[in-house]
Specification:
This protein is an alpha/beta fold and 303 residues long. Among the domains are: 1-88, Orthogonal Bundle (Arc Repressor Mutant, subunit A), CATH 1.10.10; 170-271, D-Maltodextrin-Binding Protein, domain 2 (3-Layer(aba) Sandwich). Helices cover 42% and strands 22% of the residues. The protein contains eleven helices and twelve strands. It has a five-stranded mixed beta sheet with strand order 4-3-5-12-6, sandwiched between helices. The chain has a three-stranded antiparallel beta sheet with strand order 10-7-11. Strands 1-2 form a two-stranded antiparallel ribbon. A hairpin with a 2-residue loop joins strand 1 (48-51) and strand 2. It is elongated and about 65 Å long. The mean pLDDT is 88. It holds the Pfam family LysR_substrate. GO terms for molecular function: DNA binding; DNA-binding transcription factor activity. It comes from Candidatus Eubacterium avistercoris.
Length: 303
């Protein structure tokens, strides 16, 4: 087992395919495949599961990857300290439901990250795709919510994909409204108050189940419904159509402007936000720092 082989494994995971990794590593794909196969033979297990849809990590491969990253990080520290080498390009990605606090923490991570080269990604996407991204390590961390209604289904999905849910915080539901909405001055709103206004929800694509909805109370019948695919469009419609959406109550005026307000919803429901990661895989230092920044931002925000 060599450091070069470990670098190959990490790069394949980061790129999501042998072809992309080979291109980035400046080696031929057959040479890369042979190096991986040689390592798998030495270890006595398959690091990757290969199919006509591509490759994904095996359970043992996920555990191996966590150790491989740690070894490479320690080797880099030694090289930087004693050989004067510059730090390698850092790669980090997170997939999340459409939460401003996830973006705020990501912004803070970028701002404090001192490097001349990095490749970070944040994907605001559908609930099922968040699970798929973390399962395949397209993203190291996923961010989504559980509540009494969806928890059994989501936890089953996580177990089937060898993922874990780590709680971050619990919130009471709030309604996001445009500041011009007639309800914007109320201290609290009810579902009856909201009935005349369009309800905005995030489209879940082919997995458009009540259980995958980003918004709680997804089974409540509403006369006016609009599905959107991105947060900017949703906020534009909150203002332009006097619509509403239900979320955690954490909103960022820095990112979303001053024309969106958050009003408590009269409901006993609770929203439990957490991050999902692969079981048995240790987070990278960047991943750990991102979660610290998430918690710091959440703690600074009054729910």
């Amino acid at each position: 087992m060599t450091l070069q082989q470990l670098k190959y494994i990490v790069e394949i995971v980061n790129r999501g395919s042998m072809r992309e990794a080979a291109s980035r590593l400046y080696v031929s794909q057959p040479s890369l495949s042979a190096a991986v196969k040689e390592l798998e033979t030495e270890l006595g297990f398959d690091i990757f599961i290969r199919s006509n849809k591509g490759i994904s990590l095996s359970m043992q491969g996920s555990e191996f990857l966590g150790y491989a990253r740690q070894v490479l990080e320690q080797a880099e520290l030694l090289e930087n300290r004693f050989l004067g080498k510059k730090p390698a390009r850092r790669i980090f990605s997170v997939s999340a439901q459409h939460y401003a606090f996830a973006v705020n923490a990501f912004v803070s991570l970028i701002r404090e990250y001192d490097a001349t080269e990095y490749e970070f990604a944040i994907r605001e996407t559908k609930t099922h795709e968040i699970v798929e991204d973390v399962k395949t390590l397209r993203s190291e961390i996923g961010i989504l919510y559980l509540n009494d209604f969806n928890e059994q289904v989501i936890r089953k999905l996580l177990r089937e994909n060898h993922l874990e849910f780590h709680p971050l915080f619990e919130a009471s539901p709030h309604v996001f409204l445009g500041s011009n909405n007639p309800l914007a001055q109320k201290e609290k709103v009810s579902l009856d108050d909201l009935a005349p206004y369009p309800c905005l929800t995030f489209d879940q694509g082919i997995h458009n189940s009540f259980y995958y909805s980003e918004e709680i109370l997804s089974t409540v019948s509403r006369p006016k419904n609009i599905q959107v695919s991105d947060r900017a469009t949703l906020f534009n419609l909150l203002v332009g159509l006097e619509g509403y959406t239900i979320s955690t109550g954490i909103i960022s005026s820095d990112l979303n402007g001053e024309n969106i307000v958050s009003i408590p919803l009269d409901s006993r429901e609770k929203i439990r936000i957490g991050c999902i990661t692969q079981k048995s895989m240790q987070l990278s230092p960047i991943g750990r720092r991102y979660i610290e920044l998430l918690k710091e931002y959440i703690n600074e925000t009054s729910l």
